[in-house]
TrEMBL record, chain A:
Name assigned to this protein: ABC transporter ATP-binding protein
InterPro entries cross-referenced by the UniProt entry: AAA+_ATPase, ABC_transporter-like_ATP-bd, P-loop_NTPase
Family per record: Belongs to the ABC transporter superfamily.
Location of the ABC transporter domain: 6-231
CDD domains: ABC_DR_subfamily_A
Pfam families reported in the protein's UniProt record: ABC_tran (PF00005)
Keyword field contains ATP-binding: yes
Transmembrane segments: none
UniProtKB/TrEMBL annotation, chain B:
Transmembrane segments: 16-35, 50-71, 106-129, 135-159, 166-185, 272-293
UniProt GO cellular component terms: plasma membrane
Lineage of source species: Archaea, Methanobacteriati, Methanobacteriota, Stenosarchaea group, Halobacteria
The protein, known as: ABC transporter permease
Keyword Transmembrane helix applies: yes
Molecular function terms, GO-annotated: ABC-type transporter activity
Keywords: Membrane, Transmembrane, Transmembrane helix
Keyword Chloroplast: no
Length: 249, 299
């Protein structure tokens, strides 16, 4: 068996007294579409920041595609596609230039125009990103994450700023990438989008992983009906952890 | 040979600068600022006065411009979030620093070269053929100085979390202390340490004073370029050095030859120290920044 796409053990991040992430044990298999859910401030972005070497952990270990995410950044990022949250593009550079930067650094051979066409920006190839709407910017960022056929896609809140067409596009892209064999790890607080695309979800609340499993697993475990949505599961799990306070797991 | 990993990032940085107005406005300003023919410079240098113009570009205007164009390169992207794309690339954080510094430096060195060429052309037409070797050597020294300035600003940019603090350190320390007021500050430090006055009209023949004076990148750049021009061993501008050596008491300028008339000049005041000091300013702050930047949280 190959190494998991993502594996963490006791991964923790504290800022002074504030606990952003507490002893996260998580394993995401190759080829899986994994949804990382939780309200704002639950620790989703903290986890992603740690996995992408934007931040260093206080404690714990992690491996991304079998690499140490903090000491083997080059090898690791060459195979990872990243759509960050709360980013900004370069106002003066065209969409094409953005993709060329990623392609050339990854030593990939993708055609920028083909990638932009895939995300519905075929008309804006040479337009400066400074003129883009929020939705267009998000599509550009999605295209940047697809450069070089990554083995792992990390999408942080990919539905942000998108209209229904954009949301459908992200879902299609995730499905196509999974079909190709890529692992997709994404975070979201927009729960409705998640059940359509995910094999498994992990629910994070107040820096702790509350539960992990397929939606069906979680439903049966929580004794919810078959028509229970991810919202119901989510509310049930996080309400429980609110009641019992610390130490759910 | 494969290109280094940071090359696309550096090219991107250079492109961002070269497709914006700032560097070209700087280029125009440098020509207007540095074209200063004078009888004293002509007496001292002849047609090589034109090479002196290139040195003048690096006084005040170029440091200010280079710092302005690079002090936000990392802290600004950290605030806006575009740094997340860069950090998501297959690059170490050190690669990111190197790519930023080299790319920005090229983005400034190109307009500087254009200004120098314009000055060279004007000088060629008006004052005749200058030494092309000296011209090239001073231009290269100017590029080194640009690299030092960009590296200093990027180092500060990489280790601060607020744009305001970066602005304060870059303009308060690098520009005001090390560039504009260093002569005054070095003189004060010297007086405090030695108990002797540092009178620039009649400077003491003390190696400590002159060593302190060339600690700043600005003055060491001029020590190096005055050496290339052959006007004298000093961190002052070439025309001030020429004036000083002709009429020593007329001008408040520190020149080694004027102070050490009867005593031997210490070896550490050799003009090559200008180059050494620049290299130290290039390597040390960036090295410290690299150490901190590799370890910190960047979001």
């Amino acid at each position: 068996m190959t190494t998991p796409a993502i594996e963490t053990e006791g991964l923790s991040k504290r800022y002074g007294e504030t606990v952003a992430l507490e002893r996260l044990d998580l394993s995401v298999s190759r080829g899986e579409v994994f949804g990382f859910l939780g309200p704002n401030g639950a620790g989703k972005s903290t986890t992603i920041n740690l996995l992408l070497n934007y931040a260093k952990p206080t404690e714990g270990t992690a491996s991304v595609l079998g690499y140490d995410p903090w000491n083997e950044v080059v090898e690791c990022h060459r195979r990872v596609g990243i759509l960050p949250d709360r980013y900004d593009t370069y106002d003066g550079l065209s969409a094409r230039r953005h993709l060329q930067l990623v392609r050339d650094t990854k030593r990939a051979t993708d055609d920028p125009e083909a990638l932009l066409e895939r995300v519905g920006l075929a008309d804006a190839v040479d337009q400066p990103a400074g003129e883009f709407s929020q939705g267009m910017e998000q599509r550009l960022a999605l295209a940047m994450s697809l450069v070089g056929e990554p083995d792992l896609l990390v999408l942080d809140e990919p539905f942000t700023g998108l209209d229904p067409h954009g949301v459908a596009l992200v879902r299609d892209v995730v499905a196509a990438e999974a079909e190709r064999g890529a692992t997709v790890f994404f975070s979201s607080h927009v729960l409705g989008q998640v059940q359509v695309v995910c094999d498994r979800v992990g629910i994070l609340h107040r820096g702790r992983l509350v539960d992990v499993g397929s939606l069906a697993d979680l439903r049966s475990k929580l004794d919810l009906g078959d028509d229970a949505t991810v919202e119901d599961v989510f509310v049930d799990l996080t309400a429980d952890s609110v009641r019992s306070g610390e130490g759910v797991r | 040979m494969a290109l280094p990993r940071w090359f696309p990032l550096a090219r991107n940085e250079a492109r961002i600068l070269l497709t914006s107005k700032g560097p070209w406005a700087l280029a125009a300003l440098l020509v207007l600022w540095a074209y200063r023919p004078s009888y004293i410079a002509w007496d001292g240098l002849g047609p090589d006065m034109t090479v002196g113009f290139v040195q003048t570009t690096a006084t005040i205007v170029l440091p200010l411009g280079a710092l302005l164009l690079s002090y936000r390169s990392i802290v600004g992207e950290r605030r806006s979030g575009s740094l997340k794309f860069v950090l998501g690339l297959p690059l170490t954080r050190t690669d990111v620093l190197v790519g930023k510094v080299l790319g920005r430096s090229v983005g400034i060195a190109v307009p500087v070269t254009v200004s120098a060429s314009a000055l060279g052309l004007i000088g060629l037409v008006r004052f005749g053929l200058f030494s092309p070797l000296r011209f090239l050597a001073v231009l290269l020294a100017t590029h080194l100085y640009v690299l030092v300035l960009v590296s200093l600003a990027t180092a500060v940019s990489a280790v601060t979390t607020s744009t305001v603090r970066a602005t304060g350190v870059v303009f308060g320390v690098v520009f005001l202390v090390l560039t504009v007021f260093w002569k005054l500050i070095a003189s004060r430090i010297y007086s405090a340490v030695s108990g002797q006055a540092a009178n620039p009209y009649d400077a003491p023949a003390d190696g400590l004073l002159f060593a302190l004076l060339r600690v700043s990148p600005d003055r060491s750049y001029r020590v190096l370029t005055n050496w290339i021009l052959g006007v004298g061993n000093s961190g002052a501008s070439y025309d001030a050095v020429i004036t000083k050596l002709q009429t020593p008491t007329s001008i408040s300028v520190f020149v080694v030859e004027a102070a050490f008339e009867t005593t031997p000049v210490p070896f550490y005041l050799h003009e090559v120290t200008g180059f050494v000091v620049l290299v130290v300013w290039l390597v040390v702050p960036l090295g410290v920044a690299r150490y901190l930047f590799e370890r910190g949280d960047l979001v």
